[in-house]
Design goal:
Structural class: mainly alpha
Number of strands: 0
Largest sheet: none
Distance between the termini: 30 Å
Number of helices: 3
Order of helices and strands: HHH
Number of domains: 1
Shape: globular
Strand content: under 5%
Oligomer: single chain
Radius of gyration: 11 Å
């Protein structure tokens, strides 16, 4: 995945503090086609927490 897309995901997370599903909707509205699981992987690299079976 290009660094520009990763930076866009991180920027949206910092602005909205939203989860992968919401960020995915924003990106799809802007013309990107990225799976929510891929977005979640990028967020887990340092931003999002892993919550195993709450």
């Amino acid at each position: 995945m290009p660094e520009s897309v990763k930076n866009e995901i991180i920027k949206l997370y910092k602005i909205y503090g939203a989860n992968a599903s919401y960020i995915g909707k924003i990106l799809r509205a802007n013309g990107y086609s990225i799976d929510n699981n891929r977005i979640n992987q990028i967020l887990k690299e340092g931003l999002a927490m892993s919550e195993p079976k709450k």
